[in-house]
Amino acid sequence: MRRKLLSPWLCSSSAAAFVLLAASQAFAFERQWHAGVDAGYANLFGDNSAGGFGGGGHLAYGLSDAFNAMLELDVTRQPSAGTTIWSSGLGAAYTLDIARVVPYIGALGGFYGLQGNPALKGPAFGGQFAFGLDYLLERSWALGVQFRVHTIFAAGDAGTLAYATTFLRAEYIWGF
Asked: What per-residue confidence (pLDDT) applies to 50?
């Protein structure tokens, strides 16, 4: 009995995707800066589970061609829960920058402010895990999507809160 391992469609599609997405050279460099804007969906988990929208900005610096320092600032609004969350994060990401499509994963620590229900009595510390995928349009411009999971460690009535953001991103890259 003869078995087909890969269909011709799968082979040709994979080859076409590789040709379209592969860069002629890697674009990652040490001391490379990235600055951009983000916008998208936010979801608050737990008792106050609610969806909403948000946006912000980000700045990254190439520590090496594989690691970036990251700064993320954003605000999200969950109208049905009457909650607005302000967040900041500083951390690092590992990037796999060998083609036009650049996946990355990172961890950040930062501070949060919460308005609405439940309200924080000042800033609270929290952490974030970021998973992203950028597409290099050219050497100086990229578009991407980023998913971040946030945990806020708040004192008092607010307790520990968790939410997620899924943002579309556009960034300018310089310093190569």
From this structure: 87
What predicted TM-score, i.e. pTM, was given to this entire model? 0.80
Instruction: Residue count of the chain, please give it.
Output: 176
- pLDDT 10s digits, 139-170: 899 999 999 999 999 877 667 889 999 999 99
